[in-house]
Design a protein that fits this description.
With 694 residues, the chain is mostly helical. The protein is built from 31 helices and eight strands.
Length: 694
C-alpha cells in the first residue's frame, strides 16, 4: 500500500465540508440535494483543480416528501455538543525526554537482533501510522476529516503531535478502560448483591485523570465502605465470599504470578509452598465484605448483631408481610429486586483484626492444621514506613512499592504486549523460573522506566509507541515458535472485539459519545436510605429504591439504550459504555470479548460465526443507512470524490488506480450510484485490510 498525500490534499476540502455538514437540518421542500443520486458515473475521471469550490453538501438523503430516510437515532446523527469527559492533559514539553527514552529501547532491540532481521525492517507510511495510532491508542479507526487533517499538516513533528493528541483524548480513556476491564474482570453485575456500576466508572475516571498506577492499585486494595461511598471497594467485592481466590487473583493481576495451586498443596511447577500462600493470605484475613460482616455471632463470635444486621432482618420480615395477599400490579416495585436493594445497602468493606489458620487438611511438615499464620511477604521487605499500618495496608504498601520488581515488571510487560501484541513474558501472568523472559535486559529496562515515570502508564505507552520498532510495518508471528519474537515491529493482529465495534460505530455515528454510563457520583442517591440508621424503615427505603430503579438500575440503563440508542436491536454506544460484559451472542462477545469470569479472558481466534456476523449483522445495515456518518460524507460529494471519501473514511488511505477502476465498475452495474456506493462501503468494511491492524 503506497502513500498518496497529493490526492488526500486534493479531496481535503470536500471531505472536511462533508464532515461539517453531515447531520445538519434537512433542506426545505421535497427535493433531495444528494449530488450523485441520479447522476451517471463519469467514464473518465475529471482533473481536480486546486482551489476549486467544494460541491454543495447534502446532510441527509431525503425521500420524495423531504423526510430523512434513516432509522438511526437522532442523537447519534447530531454533532457532539462538546468534549465527552475531562482528560488530563499531556506534558508536551517532555517530548525530548520521551524520544530519548524511546531511542534507548530501540538500541536494546537492535543489539539483540541479528543483522538479517534488521535488514527486513519496513517503516510505516504516514497513512498506516495514523491508522495504527488511532486503533492502538484510541480503540477506533480515524475519521476521514481526521486523516485529512493529519496528512495536510506541514509540521515536521506531526507524528509526535498525533500520538500526544490521541493519548490526551477520550478515545484513549475508552480504549484503556476496555483493556483493564478484561484484566480486572469488570462486570456490571459483579456478584449478588453487589452494585458494581460506581466501581466501573471509577476505573474509567482514574484512567481519564491519568492517576499513577501504583496509587489507584493501592486504593483498590485498601478501600473501605460501600460502592457508592467509595467506589474503589469494587475490586475487593469482585471476589465476595471467596477470600483465598481474592488473594490468587490479586497476585496474578499485579505481580504476574499464578499461586492458586498453592491453596491446597505445594505448587507442582514453581517454588511456591502452601504455607507461603497462607502467609500472604494472612495480610487480608481481616477484610470483611458483605452482609456476612454483620453476622458477628457466626464462627464462634460473641459480639451482638449490629444495628445494620438487625434492621436487615426486621425490614425483610416486614416486607414479606407486606407482600402477603397483594397482587403484583398493586406493588410499585418487584420483590426480588427490592430484597437485593436491601442487601446491597448492607454491603460494605471493612477491615479489622482476624487470625488466619492453616486448613484442616494441611499435611506439610512446616505446620499443623489449625496453626495461626502470621502475615509475611514472599520476597523482599515491607516498606519501612508501613510498620504502623494494619496488615492489609502493609500488604498494599509492599505490593505497590517501587522496590517490588515483580510489580513493575508485570505492568511494564502488560503494556508492552498491548503495544506489540506479544509479551516479553507469555502468558503475562506467568512469571516463574521455568518461564523466563525472552529478552531479560529489555524487561528490566522497561521495569526501570515505569518506576522512573512514577508508574505513569500513559507516559510509558507514549515512550513505547515513539520507538522506531513500534512504527514499523507489522509482521506475522507464530506463537508456538521456539524462536523468541524479536520485537523489531508489532505483530500483525486483527482488531479486538472492542476496536472493531468502535470502528464500526465511527462509520455510523457522528457522535460516538452520545451515550455514557452514569458517573459514580450519581449513585449517591443510594445513601438516602441507611440500613444502619436508627430511622431505617420501609417508608424510607421504598422511595429510594424506586428512584434507583427508574434512573440507575440495570433495567433503567438498558431502557435508555434500547429507546435512545437502538438500531434494529443494535445499541449504538462505545464498547466501554455498553453493559459489561455484553450478552452472550452479541457482536462483542462473538468477536472475542471475555465473559469477565477469568483474568484476561478475551479470545482472538477466528470463527465462522464472525464471518456471518460481518456479512449479515444489523450493524452492516446501520453503516449503509442513509443517515450514517460515512453515507452522509459520500452524499455530500460527486461520485468521483466520493470514491476517495469511502477509502479514506474506511481504510484511512486514498484508492489506487486499481481500486478506482473496480469501484467504477461496481457503480456502473448498480441501479443507482447510491446503491453502488452502499455495496462499496459494505465490501470495504468486510476486507482484511479493514479488519487487521497493519
Amino acid at each position: 500500500m503506497t502513500n498518496h498525500p497529493v490526492r488526500v490534499l486534493v479531496v481535503a476540502a470536500a471531505i472536511l465540508a462533508a464532515g461539517a455538514a453531515a447531520g445538519a437540518d434537512d433542506p426545505p421542500g421535497g427535493k433531495s440535494r444528494a449530488p450523485f443520486r441520479s447522476r451517471a458515473v463519469p467514464k473518465e475521471r475529471p482533473q481536480s483543480r486546486p482551489g476549486a469550490a467544494a460541491p454543495t453538501p447534502a446532510p441527509a438523503q431525503a425521500s420524495g416528501d423531504g423526510a430523512l430516510v434513516t432509522r438511526l437515532p437522532e442523537v447519534v446523527r447530531q454533532a457532539p455538543a462538546g468534549p465527552p469527559m475531562e482528560v488530563a492533559p499531556i506534558d508536551r514539553a517532555r517530548r525530548p525526554e520521551v524520544n530519548a527514552a524511546a531511542a534507548l529501547i530501540d538500541d536494546l532491540i537492535d543489539r539483540a537482533s541479528p543483522a538479517a532481521a534488521r535488514a527486513d525492517d519496513a517503516p510505516l507510511d504516514d497513512a498506516l501510522f495514523a491508522r495504527r495510532v488511532y486503533l492502538n491508542l484510541g480503540g477506533r479507526i480515524p475519521t476521514a476529516p481526521e486523516m485529512v487533517a493529519f496528512m495536510a499538516s506541514k509540521s515536521p513533528r506531526r507524528r509526535e503531535e498525533l500520538v500526544d493528541a490521541v493519548l490526551a483524548s477520550p478515545d484513549w480513556v475508552s480504549h484503556a478502560f476496555n483493556l483493564w476491564a478484561d484484566t480486572l474482570r469488570l462486570r456490571d453485575a459483579a456478584q449478588f448483591p453487589v452494585y458494581a456500576w460506581p466501581y466501573l466508572d471509577w476505573v474509567k475516571r482514574s484512567i481519564a485523570l491519568n492517576r499513577p498506577y501504583d496509587q489507584w492499585v493501592r486504593e483498590m486494595l485498601t478501600a473501605d465502605g460501600r460502592p457508592w461511598e467509595n467506589p474503589a471497594v469494587g475490586f475487593q467485592l469482585r471476589d465476595l465470599g471467596m477470600p483465598l481466590n481474592y488473594v490468587d487473583h490479586t497476585v496474578r493481576v499485579f505481580l504476574g504470578t499464578q499461586i492458586g495451586c498453592a491453596q491446597c498443596h505445594d505448587h507442582p511447577f514453581d517454588d511456591w509452598k502452601q504455607r507461603e500462600f497462607y502467609e500472604i493470605a494472612a495480610f487480608t484475613a481481616g477484610t470483611r465484605a458483605g452482609v456476612e460482616q454483620y453476622r458477628s455471632t457466626r464462627r464462634g463470635g460473641t459480639e451482638p448483631p449490629s444495628r445494620t444486621r438487625l434492621n436487615l432482618r426486621d425490614l425483610s420480615a416486614e416486607y414479606q408481610k407486606l407482600l402477603v395477599g397483594k397482587p403484583k400490579e398493586e406493588l410499585p416495585y418487584m420483590g426480588h429486586l427490592f430484597m437485593q436493594h436491601l442487601r446491597a445497602n448492607a454491603l460494605s468493606i471493612d477491615n479489622g483484626p482476624h487470625d488466619l489458620q492453616l486448613p484442616q487438611d494441611y499435611r506439610a511438615d512446616d505446620g499443623r492444621p489449625g496453626d495461626v499464620i502470621d502475615p509475611r511477604v514472599p520476597w523482599g521487605e515491607e516498606p519501612a514506613d508501613a510498620g504502623g499500618l494494619d496488615p492489609r495496608a502493609r500488604f498494599a504498601a509492599w505490593l505497590t512499592s517501587p522496590d517490588n520488581r515483580p510489580f513493575a515488571r508485570t505492568v511494564a510487560n502488560r503494556l508492552w504486549k498491548e503495544c506489540f501484541g506479544v509479551g516479553i513474558v507469555e502468558p503475562v501472568d506467568d512469571f516463574r523460573a521455568g518461564n523466563p523472559p525472552s529478552h531479560p535486559e529489555l524487561l528490566e529496562h522497561l521495569a526501570d522506566l515505569i518506576v522512573e515515570l512514577g508508574f505513569d502508564t500513559r507516559e510509558f505507552v507514549r515512550v513505547v509507541v515513539s520507538t522506531k520498532a513500534w512504527q514499523r510495518r507489522a509482521v506475522s508471528h507464530d506463537p508456538t515458535s521456539a524462536t523468541p519474537f524479536p520485537f523489531r515491529a508489532p505483530v500483525l493482529r486483527r482488531m479486538t472485539a472492542e476496536q472493531l465495534w468502535d470502528s464500526i460505530l465511527t462509520l455510523i455515528a457522528r457522535d460516538i459519545w452520545a451515550y455514557q454510563r452514569p458517573p459514580y457520583e450519581a449513585y449517591a442517591l443510594l445513601g438516602g436510605f441507611d440500613l444502619g440508621g436508627e430511622g431505617a424503615d420501609l417508608a424510607t427505603a421504598i422511595p429510594v429504591f424506586e428512584r434507583f430503579q427508574k434512573t440507575l438500575s440495570q433495567h433503567a440503563i438498558d431502557q435508555r439504550l434500547r429507546h435512545g440508542m437502538n438500531y434494529l436491536d443494535v445499541w449504538l454506544a462505545r464498547a466501554s459504555e455498553l453493559p459489561q460484559p455484553s450478552l452472550a451472542g452479541s457482536f462483542l462477545r462473538e468477536f472475542g470479548q471475555g465473559d469477565r469470569e477469568t483474568i484476561d479472558g478475551r479470545r482472538e481466534v477466528a470463527t465462522l460465526p464472525q464471518v456471518l456476523t460481518m456479512l449479515h449483522g444489523n450493524h452492516g445495515r446501520a453503516i449503509i443507512d442513509d443517515g450514517s456518518a460515512i453515507m452522509q460524507a459520500l452524499l455530500a460529494n460527486d461520485p468521483d470524490r466520493a470514491i476517495d471519501v469511502a477509502f479514506i473514511g474506511i481504510l484511512a488511505r486514498p484508492p489506487d488506480d486499481a481500486d478506482r477502476e473496480t469501484v467504477t465498475m461496481v457503480l456502473r452495474s448498480a441501479p443507482t450510484a447510491l446503491d453502488g456506493f452502499r455495496d462499496v462501503v459494505w465490501a470495504l468494511v468486510n476486507t482484511r485490510e479493514f479488519l487487521f491492524v497493519q
